[in-house]
Input
Amino acid sequence: MRTARAAFAEKGFAAASMDELTAAAGLTRGALYHNFGDKKGLLHAVIEQIDAEMAVRLAAVGARATDPWRGLLDEYRAYIEMALEPEIQRILLLDGPAFLGDPSLWPSQNACLAETTRRIRDLVADGAIPPVDAEAAARLLNGASLHAALWVAASGEPEATLAKALDAFGRLAEGLARP
Amino acid sequence: MRTARAAFAEKGFAAASMDELTAAAGLTRGALYHNFGDKKGLLHAVIEQIDAEMAVRLAAVGARATDPWRGLLDEYRAYIEMALEPEIQRILLLDGPAFLGDPSLWPSQNACLAETTRRIRDLVADGAIPPVDAEAAARLLNGASLHAALWVAASGEPEATLAKALDAFGRLAEGLARP
DNA sequence: CAATTCACATACGTACCGTATGCGGAAATG
DNA sequence: CATTTCCGCATACGGTACGTATGTGAATTG
Output
């Protein structure tokens, strides 16, 4: 799986050869089909691993904040920055939905999305922000964050672009906080 | 290209066979490689066509509105609804970025994104909304819209989910309108 | 009317996925 | 302790699909 993560991140899922991949890991395709069923099975296992790691990192960021609303913004800032990592962007955010379909249909529900959904639900329950469907808000904010990261990653001036993206994201998020 | 659009929308770019595709069009792969260079070239041509059509539709929606700010919201509502069409969702929004990379790097710049960027820029210039980087705002709103559409499309109850998504989207967009 | 170009077809090599089968060692069984 | 089962993985094979190199007939040009 380490080898797969590296190969998928560098070449993309479609261009990654299972022969090369398994050979690099000191195995053959036989081992792969025995353990993961097929190529998509390996992708799914890798995504599940990455997703779980992201959820842990996000929860840690959110837990550090004293103000819950500020905690949510910190989480999304962290999400955007994580989405800049090639491994996460390529595997989880681009190839995942393209080859496995919408994350909500994955056998292992998106842990990372669940984390932000839960946080928004808590904010609404505590009256910190006006009522809103937590999953809808989380999905839209995740989508906005992802595209911000794609934009920054493709940009020639990552720092300046990231600043613009974070500013615009803050403005959007404010829309949730006001009645 | 008509055949390609149908095949890409139904089976996805990766699973679409060029043999079947060209045969269905009454041609062979020779014609394809002569006109489009390679498989990705065909995808690019198809995406360019769809993107242009979307930009026209979006501009028409925006032009109908009297209030510019309302016009922008109408455009995004239309964008979300267009993103529900399987052809657009699958080809332009899922396979496009996965196989061709970020839209901003496509030779034919994303006309649809350019349309919403221009509209936001006008709103800022007219003082209708506080200053914000127009491209950043357009990208984030596009991302939010796309994920809203993916969510609705994967949902078991499309109408109810769409209502939630549109509500949450309106809340986010309001964040741009307030100081 | 000869020559060139153009659009497309045909044929071939290569790469890769998925499956069916084989094998060696570990574990279980008595 | 001997034997059998089982498990993890390797090997071999078939089928499919992409990209390229080459051929061909019609249209165009001078």
Summary: Chain B has one domain: 48-177.
